[in-house]
Amino acid sequence: MSAMSVAARKGSTQLDVMQKAGWKIDENEKACYIDVDEDNDNETSVESKWCYLPDLILEEIFTYLTPKERYYSGLVCRQWHRAFYLPTVWNNFVVDDRTLTRPKYNYYSGWQYCLDHMRTQNCLSRIGRHLRGIEFRPWHSFNNIYQFMTMLSWSMDKGSELNAEPQLIGMGRRIRSLVYHFPCNMSQPNDPEGIKLFGTGGQLLKGLKELLLRLPDLHTLKLVDFVLERFEANHLLDEVVCSCCTKMRVLNLVNVTTTHCPIMHVGLFLNLQVLTISPQNIDDDVLSLLADTTLRHLYLLQNCYTPSHLTISACGVKAWRSLKTTNPRMRVHLRLENLVDGEVVLQPEAPVHSITYWAPQARVRAHLLVRIIDHYKNTLAVYGHELLPRFSSPKPFHNRIDSLLVLMCRQCFNLDTLTIREKVSTATLLLIARTAKNLRHLNVRRFAVILRCDWPRHPEWSNEFHAWLRTNSRSYAAVEREISQIFGYKWQLLSDRDFKQLTVNAKSGA
Questions:
Q1: Which of 27, 145, 174, 377 lies at a C-alpha separation of 20 to 30 Å from 15?
Q2: Per-residue confidence at 40, pLDDT binned at 50, 70, 90?
Q3: Are the beta carbons of 172 and 214 closer than 8 angstroms?
């Protein structure tokens, strides 16, 4: 055999090996060479049909992926590469500390991730016209977020010029939603002092306001935990009011400040439908402005960074009465989201529709529940604690909340949804189902239900009713059967797993 034929055979062998190997980028953004073994040469290969999925299904799948995962998915085949550029895929663009960054070594701080301006400009030129929502989730590198907002604002300005480049035309004009969760807690995990709040402001706030000024069609804006100074909070929404005062539909302002500072701008959005705000950022004047809008749902939200309920003053009774007269269709929702114990700030005479807790250590207190019944017996429709409790409930009847829950069902005739996570007896569940005439959704943990009829007999109970109560309180199956007959659908007690899933669905729906 000649030397030329031997070399040709070796070259063909090396070419086959190269075709079955390649480079891949690992999790640390480093390239690695991967060889593919020839183990299944004799096995018959089955052709995959994933490339023939309809566009609607591909769009739905790609929306659950991160930008990096979408990029690698687009390398699978031509069909998936085309799906990478479908408009719906980029409805919501999440920007965090690692988005469009590259590692760079700093002599004092070591390796850090810095925004790659070339990649960012290339990304915006390709998908910027398809963006419908942006969500900022910074951890620590606020400079990357600021630079991204600056580049997006610059690209939008360039795209609106007369002789703009084709790839910049329409940049960001479809953005309808902007969400910004600021990590205001700067304490370390092993910090004994706990929460250390540091608000945003300065150039970062200025860059955000410049971006908001360029979004005239914005209808959803959520700014959470900014913890601003009073002079910054008073001018937070100046640009938003100028650009989209008639198009805003959903506005979320949680903990704009930690002190009492009414945000008057929220009453200038004439077509606002849903407003979520902390109780320290409203007062009587804000309510008078909201009365003249089309607002339907007002959420007063407290989280772990909201000041204690003892330091927050409720709005005046006259202001709530005037609002109910001017805007009778508006509903108020009181909500607490906190991993420690706490109480909601009650608003007397407010048209409260729901009171919900997302707090594992918050107990049902008798004095607070009595006040809730007294204030909102004509309007309350939803009440409950969502997370599983991190405390032990008492077992004796006189220490439990059974009688208070039945009193609520008797007084609040509009009660539609009731979620119970603390210990109650089976007899209490039967009494609740018989007492609450408009109750349709009763969510109860099976683990917290006691098989017992420990209610003292009421003088108004007949012998038949008392016998029915005692008989059906002896088993879970009997309770489920009787309550199902009362509600008109199959009702069941919830396991802890189902109770958690119920909480997840309720939070995602909110």
A1: 27
A2: very low
A3: yes
Structure tokens at 263: 């945000």
- How far apart are the C-alpha atoms of 151 and 472, rounded to whole Å? 67
Q: What are phi and psi of 34, to 5 degrees?
A: -120, 130
Q: Do the Cβ atoms of 135 and 93 come closer than 8 Å?
A: yes
CA separation for the pair 231, 177 (Å, rounded): 26
Strand intervals (E) in 303-351:
331-337
Q: Given its phi and psi angles, is residue 349 left (phi above 0), alpha (psi -120 to 50 degrees) or beta?
A: left
Residues 6+ apart with CB under 8 A from 328: none
pLDDT at residue 34, rounded to an integer = 59
List pLDDT tens digits, range 456-484: 988 889 999 999 999 999 999 999 999 99
Say how many C-beta atoms besides its own lie within 10 A of residue 43's C-beta. 7
Euclidean distance between CA atoms 105 and 108, whole angstroms: 9
The values of phi and psi at residue 433, to 5°, are: -65, -35
Residue 46 structure tokens:
């089955």
Residue 369's CB is within 10 A of a number of other CB atoms, namely 17
More confident residue, 345 or 29: 345
| 334 close to 309: Cβ distance less than 8 angstroms | no
Region of residue 201 (phi > 0: left; psi between -120 and 50: alpha; otherwise: beta): left
Strands 331-337 and 352-358: parallel
**CB half-sphere exposure, 114, CA atoms < 13 A:** 10
Measured between alpha carbons, how far is 105 from 113 in angstroms, rounded to an integer?
9
Quick: pLDDT tens for 258-296: 999 999 999 999 899 999 999 999 999 999 999 989 999
- Strand 101-106 and strand 110-115: the pairing is antiparallel
pLDDT of residue 193: 61
Kindly indicate the confidence band of residue 127, based on its pLDDT and cuts at 50, 70 and 90: confident
* Cα(98)–Cα(104) distance, integer angstroms: 12
134 strand-pairing partners: 93, 178
Let me know: does 337 contact 313? Beta carbons within 8 Å.
Answer: no
Identity of the residue numbered 330: M
Longest dimension (CA), the chain: 113
How far is 415 from 422, CA to CA, in rounded Å? 19
pLDDT over 80 (residue 130): yes
Please give the full DSSP string across 131-196, using - where no structure is assigned. Answer: --EEEEE-SS-HHHHHHHHHHHHHHHHHHTSTT--GGGTTTTTT--EEEEE---B---TT-TT---
Q: How far is CA 329 from CA 196, 204, 255, 282, 374, in A?
A: 40, 38, 26, 19, 21
297 within 8 A of 304, measured Cβ to Cβ:
no
Residue range 188-228, pLDDT digits in tens: 666 656 677 788 888 999 999 999 999 999 999 999 999 99
The residues facing 443 across adjacent strands are 419
Mean pLDDT in the chain?
A: 86
